[in-house]
């Protein structure tokens, strides 16, 4: 299945795009998605365990991704 991954701020800058298309096997997990993204040329810009949201809810590494899910990689933020 093809998953659209939304990127924001420093992640979008690192990949030079606001989104990625990632091919995954049916039933793949967030952990498997992150492994694929980290293998891409700009993947080293990601921390080992970036925050991930699936359908606008933070998702643990073992959450399964389904075709049509909205997936986003959330960069660290700081405020003051």
pLDDT < 50 runs, ≥5 residues:
none
- Multimeric state of these chains? single chain
| Span of the ends, CA to CA | 41 Å
CATH topology: Ubiquitin-like (UB roll)
Mean pLDDT: 93
What is the strand arrangement across the widest sheet? 2-1-5-3-4
Provide the CATH architecture.
Roll
Structure in words:
By secondary structure, the chain is α+β, with helices and mostly antiparallel strands. It has one domain (2-74): Ubiquitin-like (UB roll). The protein is 21% helix and 26% strand. The chain has two helices and five strands, in the order βαβαβββ. A five-stranded mixed sheet has the order 2-1-5-3-4. β3 and β4 form a beta hairpin. It is globular. The mean pLDDT is 93.
Summary?
The protein has 80 residues and is α+β, with helices and mostly antiparallel strands. It is built from 2 helices and 5 strands. The protein is globular, with a radius of gyration of 12 Å.
Q: Key features?
A:
single chain; 80 residues; alpha+beta; Ubiquitin-like (UB roll); 2 helices; 5 strands
Summarize the helices and strands and which ones pair or pack.
Blueprint lengths: L1 E6 L1 H7 L3 E5 L6 H10 L11 E4 L2 E2 L12 E4 L6
Parallel strand pairs: 1-5
Antiparallel strand pairs: 1-2, 3-4, 3-5
């Amino acid at each position: 299945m093809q998953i659209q991954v939304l990127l924001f701020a420093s992640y979008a800058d690192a990949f030079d795009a606001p989104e990625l298309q990632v091919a995954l096997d049916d039933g793949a997990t967030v952990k498997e998605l992150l492994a694929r993204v980290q293998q891409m040329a700009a993947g080293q810009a990601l921390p080992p365990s970036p925050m991930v949201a699936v359908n606008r809810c933070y998702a643990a590494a073992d959450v399964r991704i389904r075709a049509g899910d909205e997936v986003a990689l959330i960069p660290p933020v700081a405020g003051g």
